[in-house]
């Protein structure tokens, strides 16, 4: 009895030690996961974040390589920006290919300890990377809304096969990875919006300079002439206008201070300046001096042209004839530019809508195409019926729009070049695109009058960034040897789609 009792006590002691080790291992694992989570979620730069995720996953999982695949909703593909041991090369696969695709579709983890023996294994990635995959542990990345945004994969465990314990560990890590990726994506979107805000303010500041300088000069001259004519009442009105003008000039200076990141004082005073400026036209219009009447009329006409809603005059428009006229007018306006405009128009299409609105939209899109196409390049305009609708495409073989700018280009008053660069250009010159008001107007008209405007674009790979400049002439480009190479590199297509109610048949 004593011996068996001792044996029982010994077994209990061994069991307690095992439990203690298990608890210690459990605590150590959770501390490790928590530390990894802190490291991963502290990074919001997407490029750096990928490297951090890879390094931490390999360290914790004891693997040779790891990869993050993210879902691209636009193309419905999974893409990886980087994999450990490779340069930053982008890999894209369909969402139903490979282990990552299977995990993404099923939203469930997957362990494969003999990769090349599994029918779902996608060996093309190994061929592209030169890496030999032996085993894979793949975990879905689920965001806070319960949506699967991609997959996290650990490859080639150094100590043998992947186990259920490995699956639990990588699943815990994946929660932090999903949060970090979502935060990084939001950060990228905020950077795009901040860039747009800066450009808009920059544009508005530039647009204020010239008209304010002209108005200041005109009012100064009128004031001097009124002093000679000795008309006190009118002189008082002019001085009131000059005071308000000085406030606008002060506002313009403060906008520049904001752009230059200098501190701006008296924020409440800025609001007062804006309110006072709104009263400027009203104040001097009440006095209505004869000597200043023409200036006021020009200002009022300009304001009305920006905000008025024109009367709609619907008529039948033979589209081929109309677009030929648009092309002829653009060719006459672009002067010495060497851009070939090619029109392909179905002859029997007739649209029923306001001719003036249609012309503004088409002329704006064609002007935009010309300004983004280098000399010796070409633009194609196609008009055809498609599924009981009419489609007009303005396709330029130009520089294209960067992916970042594509998110904002139809938002209005957004320019893809620095203000100082495009401000020195004249309309229709290469890279003369300014505030984006033509595109904003087209989008506004489409929403008001029942048609749609959309676009797609590919940026020339030799000038991938906004700051990269095209030479403006194909023969001057040092990246290519012949014209056909340029045509295949980039370009944009802006499309207008008119629904059935705008279309007549056989009357053109």
In short:
This protein is 51% helix and 18% strand. With 508 residues, the protein is an alpha+beta fold. It has three domains: 38-190, GAF domain (Beta-Lactamase, 2-Layer Sandwich); 196-307, no CATH class; 314-505, Histidine kinase-like ATPase, C-terminal domain (Heat Shock Protein 90).
**Total count of domains:** 3
Helix content bin: 40-55%
Remind me, CATH topology of the largest domain? Heat Shock Protein 90
Number of helices: 15
Order of helices and strands: HHEEEHEHEEHHHHHEHEEHEEHHHEHEE
Radius of gyration: 33 Å
Question: What is the first-to-last residue Cα distance?
Answer: 112 Å
User: Percent of residues in beta strands?
Assistant: 15-25%
What spatial form do the alpha-carbon principal axes imply? extended
CATH homologous superfamily grouping of the largest domain: Histidine kinase-like ATPase, C-terminal domain
The biggest beta sheet reads: 6 strands, antiparallel
CATH class of the largest domain: Alpha Beta
In the predicted model, the low-confidence regions spanning at least 5 consecutive residues are: 82-86, 258-278
Q: What's the CATH architecture of the largest domain?
A: 2-Layer Sandwich
Give the tally of β-strands: 14
Structural class: alpha+beta
Give the overall average pLDDT: 76
Strand arrangement within the widest β-sheet reads 3-2-1-6-5-4
Overview of the structural elements:
This protein folds into three domains: 38-190, Beta-Lactamase (2-Layer Sandwich), CATH 3.30.450.40; 196-307, no CATH class; 314-505, Histidine kinase-like ATPase, C-terminal domain (Heat Shock Protein 90, 2-Layer Sandwich). The protein has 15 helices and 14 strands. It has helices spanning 2-41, 46-61, 98-106, 124-129, 164-229, 232-259, 267-278, 280-287, 293-307, 319-333, 355-371, 403-406, 419-422, 437-449, 483-487, and strands at residues 63-72, 77-80, 91-94, 110-112, 136-142, 148-157, 314-318, 340-345, 349-354, 378-386, 389-396, 452-458, 491-498, 503-505. The strands form three sheets. A six-stranded antiparallel beta sheet has the order 3-2-1-6-5-4, sandwiched between helices. Strands 8-10-11-13-12 form a five-stranded mixed beta sheet. The model is unreliable at 82-86 and 258-278 (pLDDT under 50).
């Amino acid at each position: 009895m004593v011996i068996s009792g001792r044996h029982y006590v010994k077994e209990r002691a061994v069991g307690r030690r095992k439990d203690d080790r298990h608890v210690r291992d459990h605590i150590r694992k959770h501390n490790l996961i928590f530390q990894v989570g802190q490291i991963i979620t502290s990074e919001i730069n997407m490029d750096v974040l990928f490297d951090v995720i890879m390094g931490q996953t390999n360290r914790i999982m004891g693997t040779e390589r790891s990869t993050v695949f993210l879902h691209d909703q636009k193309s419905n593909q999974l893409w990886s920006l980087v994999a450990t041991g490779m340069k930053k090369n982008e890999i894209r696969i369909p969402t139903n290919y490979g282990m990552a695709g299977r995990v993404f579709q099923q939203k469930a983890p997957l362990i494969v300890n003999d990769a090349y023996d599994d029918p779902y294994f996608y060996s093309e990635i190994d061929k592209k990377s030169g890496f030999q995959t032996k085993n894979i542990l793949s975990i879905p990345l689920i965001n806070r809304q319960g949506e699967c945004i991609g997959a996290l994969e650990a490859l080639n465990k150094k100590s043998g096969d992947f186990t259920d314990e490995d699956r639990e560990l990588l699943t815990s890590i994946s929660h932090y990875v999903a949060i970090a990726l979502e935060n990084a994506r939001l950060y990228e979107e905020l950077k795009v919006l901040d860039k747009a805000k800066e450009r808009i303010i920059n544009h508005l500041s530039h647009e204020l300079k010239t008209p304010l300088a002209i108005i200041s000069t005109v009012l100064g001259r009128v004031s001097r002439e009124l002093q000679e004519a000795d008309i006190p009442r009118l002189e008082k009105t002019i001085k009131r206008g000059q005071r308000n003008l000085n406030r606008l000039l002060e506002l313009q200076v403060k906008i520049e201070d904001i752009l230059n990141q200098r501190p701006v004082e008296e924020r409440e005073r800025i609001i007062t300046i804006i309110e006072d400026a709104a009263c400027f036209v009203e104040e001097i219009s009440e006095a209505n001096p004869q000597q200043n009447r023409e200036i006021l009329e020009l200002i009022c006409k300009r304001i009305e042209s920006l905000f008025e809603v024109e009367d709609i005059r619907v008529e039948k428009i033979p589209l081929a004839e109309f677009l030929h006229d648009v092309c002829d007018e653009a060719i006459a306006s672009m002067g010495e530019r060497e851009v070939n405009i090619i029109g392909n128009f179905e002859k029997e299409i007739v649209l029923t809508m306001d001719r003036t609105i249609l012309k503004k939209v088409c002329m704006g899109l064609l002007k935009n195409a010309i300004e983004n196409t280098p000399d010796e390049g070409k633009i194609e305009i196609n008009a055809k019926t498609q599924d009981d609708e009419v489609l007009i495409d303005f396709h330029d073989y130009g520089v294209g729009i960067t992916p970042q700018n594509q998110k904002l280009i139809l938002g209005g008053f957004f320019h893809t070049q620095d203000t100082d660069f495009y401000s020195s250009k004249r309309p229709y010159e290469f890279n003369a695109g300014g505030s984006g008001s033509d595109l904003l107007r087209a989008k506004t008209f489409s929403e008001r009058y029942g048609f749609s405007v959309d676009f797609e674009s590919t940026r020339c790979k030799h000038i991938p960034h906004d700051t990269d400049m095209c030479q403006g002439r194909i023969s001057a480009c040092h990246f290519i040897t012949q014209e056909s190479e340029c045509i295949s590199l980039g370009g944009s297509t802006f499309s207008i789609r008119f629904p059935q109610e705008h279309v007549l048949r056989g009357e053109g």
